[in-house]
């Protein structure tokens, strides 16, 4: 979960296991918002499959299994070539049939048993490619209050990352998700090349925050470095801002601050409005109408500048804090730390744990799954 400005970061030893860690952390290691049990933030996700092991057989086939099919097929081809050569030699005695036979047999006997370069990656492995700018918007006339996801289609890839697998028109499996993280200055110095190599497709990077008890708006100390590093490593990037706006005018001020920090930088994911008021915060106690208008003011200012915008909230806040009809054009990034989401609202990105481990990041990190390809497939916008 995004961490507010001014909170204390508790460092803990990063798991040395090759599997993604999902053991729940104490509430003291997160900021105040995680103490709201109604949001489901204290629920732990079942331990994912260790890296290096394979998911369900229908999603991935072991190379050894695939290699067993190579030799019989190659031998069959060689026998056909030999047969043709025999026929040809009777028709034309001068034809170099022996050379053909020798080459065919050599191709079979010299085949490397570990050579699977000509075998396509099993369907369901990897992530759906990022094209253009990702929008988290939801068609409120169809899916806003009844999302189209089938959670039995969730599985893990070879890196232990959560993926959503759909079915293509030819009956094969196709991955309809992308794996991401969200980070801030509290995650320290990040080796983005290692993050990308660990199967992470995108990062939502904190750009700044509004003070919870004062009117200070500050930039995240690591934003510029993280933005440049993630881009250089080939990740898709988006940004989030921790808001404490109490009026629409303050929300516009926050959005203008974000735009000033971006300074025209290209993003492949939205700028996300993160509003998590708790008791004692300057923005606590607003009405649903006020919160909705504040979020809309922030998002519209961002989109007027040419970027995409979206809203972050917990599963309970998703249904209790906002008038969703007014905000569906931006879409929702939902946080719930559980095996599967329990809300029926059509969020588009899911933060499913705050205790993930990713190579290149020393401490625990939030893991997210982008479900926009799955939603687009349900809406008939993808040709599978």
Describe the structure in your own words.
Mean pLDDT is 75; it is low at 3-74 and 92-125. The two termini are 33 Å apart. It is built from ten helices and twelve strands. It folds into two domains: 27-41 and 124-378, Glycosidases (TIM Barrel), CATH 3.20.20.80; 63-109. The protein has 384 residues and is of the alpha/beta class. It has helices at 63-67, 70-91, 97-109, 192-197, 223-232, 248-262, 288-304, 315-320, 324-327, 372-378; strands spanning 154-156, 162-167, 173-175, 178-183, 202-210, 217-219, 236-243, 271-275, 309-314, 332-335, 349-356, 365-370. Helices cover 27% and strands 17% of the residues. The strands form two sheets. The chain has an eight-stranded mixed β-barrel. A three-stranded antiparallel beta sheet has the order 1-2-3, with no helix packed on it.
